[in-house]
Structure formats: C-alpha cells, structure tokens
Amino acid sequence: MMRKLTGFFERRAKVVVCGIALTASILIGAVDLATSIEMHFLLLYLIPIFIGSWFVSRDVGMYLAIFGSLIWFVADSLSGRVYSSPWIAYWNLLMRTAVFVIFAFTQASLKSKLDEVSSLASRDFLTGLPNGRAFYQLAAEEMKRTGGAPITIACVDVNGIQIVNEKLGYPAGDQMMCMIAHTIRQNVARPDLVGRLAGTTFSILLPKTVSSDANLILEQIHGALKNERRKFAHPLNFYISAVACTKAPGTVAELMQRADNQMSRMKHAKKDFIQIVTSDSPSLLN
Whole-angstrom Cα distance, residue 263 to residue 271? Predict the structure, then answer.
C-alpha cells in the first residue's frame, strides 16, 4: 500500500502534488469545522505537510505547515471554541505553527539524507557510474518506458588492468578505470545509461538503437578507448560484446546473459574487437 502511494506521488508533477496537499489541508479543515470541538485532528493536519516536504521540497513543506496552521485556527475560531482570554487562541496558533514547521523541516531533511544514502549505495565509488544493481534498474525502467522499441546492450571488458596495477601501482590502475568510464560516457547520447557492472566490466544501454547504429556508436567508443591507450602506452585490450534486438526482450537479464556469454568467448582472442549479435526474438534465452 505504501509503495503504491509513494509511486503515485513520485510519478506526479510537483505542481500537482502541491495541489493535492493544499486540497487535503482544506478538506481536513472542513471536516474539523463540521465535527465537535472536542475532537482533534493533529495527525491529519500533518499528512499534507508530509506530502509537500517529502515529495516536493522543504520550502513547500514549510508553506503548507503555515497554511495548515491557519486552516486549523480558522476552523477552531468558527467552531465556537471560547478561551478564557483572547490571546490564548493566538498563542495556540503560534505553537501549532512552530510544531508544523519543525515537522516539515525534519521530514525534508530526512528525505534529503535518504536520497544521499541511496545515491551513494547505487554508485560505483571509483568511477561514479551506476553500479550493477542500479544499472539493471535503470535499464529495466528505460525498456519499460520505450515500450518494446529496438534496443542494444553492450558490455565493455578491459583486459590488462592487473598488469598496470602490478607495474605502476593501484592508483595508476584506478586512474585508467576512471579514464575508461569518462571516455565511454563522452561517446554516448545517454551517459546516464552507462554503468560499471563489476571489476573491469562496463555496461552500456542504447535505447531505440538498431544494430547498424549501435555498431557506429561502439566503433566510436572503441576508437576513443584505443586513442587513450596510445596516450598512456598501457597494455590494455578492450572487448565489446553487444546484443541488438529489434524488439526489446522481457527482462534486462535476457540481454545481459547473451552479451556475457558472448564476451566469455571473445576474451580468448589476443586482440581486442567488437562483436554485435542481432536478434529478432523478444526472448533470447530460448
């Protein structure tokens, strides 16, 4: 239930979410006014504030906190509640506003920290690319968004990093890995769809890309990597295994398994090269 609600708000534009939160505040105030003055709706007033703080921004949450406090004050005043002194109503307004604003601030701060932790958990610490798990999620979302359009996935495996580590030290090997990641990202239209699966293996998703177009892109990447290899004079080989589908398969795993199996055979070669397999079948595992 909570996942569905979270997904609902995350898919909506921020303006729409603000509208929902404002409407909810007004409706809660109306219900508060229509019921007995002995009943309190504190928890319900917090809901629109939470929605604004969590799904929009801290500032929006604070504005909703002030708005909700004013709605409560109006409902309280119109309901006929009488205090021993007029200033008590305004004191209560001030206290409620303070509580609501603090709540909005804490929720927005918590969301920011969670987003930061989530980003760190989904990134490769060395190259800054999405890690294997994050790449699979990004690829699955992209395949769903493109709705069965042609798609190509490629694996780039680097052979020789261990030699660099042994001769020049691990910092030099790390520098090469970062250079490779940067070079791949520079030569694709969607840098956000480049990931580091594990070790010396990188992955590239090329949505809406048929075999012929993918070959041009991968040739460009391969050429750029070889140019960097010449600059540093390091003994590296770059193997690129790709699977191009005229119709996207059911899962990312189907594409990755075919590309990985093909890569295993390619790495027996002494020289690096590119190999693309085209498939017309939506299922590559059968």
Answer: 13
Distances (CA, A) of 199 to 83, 159, 203: 70, 11, 12
Assess contact for 63 and 52: CB atoms under 8 A. yes
CA nearest 164: which of 152, 182, 178?
A: 178
pLDDT of residue 248: 66
What lies within 8 Å, CB to CB, of 43 at 6+ separation is none
Rounded to the nearest 5°, which phi and psi values hold at 244?
Answer: -110, 125
DSSP category for residue 123: B
Report the CATH fold assignment for 132-279: Alpha-Beta Plaits (3.30.70)
Dist CA 284 CA 260 (whole Å): 12
Where do the domains of the chain lie?
2-121, 132-279
pTM metric for this prediction: 0.69
Neighbours of 230 (CB within 10 A): 8
Tens-digit pLDDT profile for residues 111-122: 999 988 887 788
Helix (H, G, I), strand (E, B) or coil at 56: coil
pLDDT at 280: 65
DSSP category for residue 130: B
DSSP 8-state symbol, 210: -
| 3-class DSSP assignment, residue 31 | helix
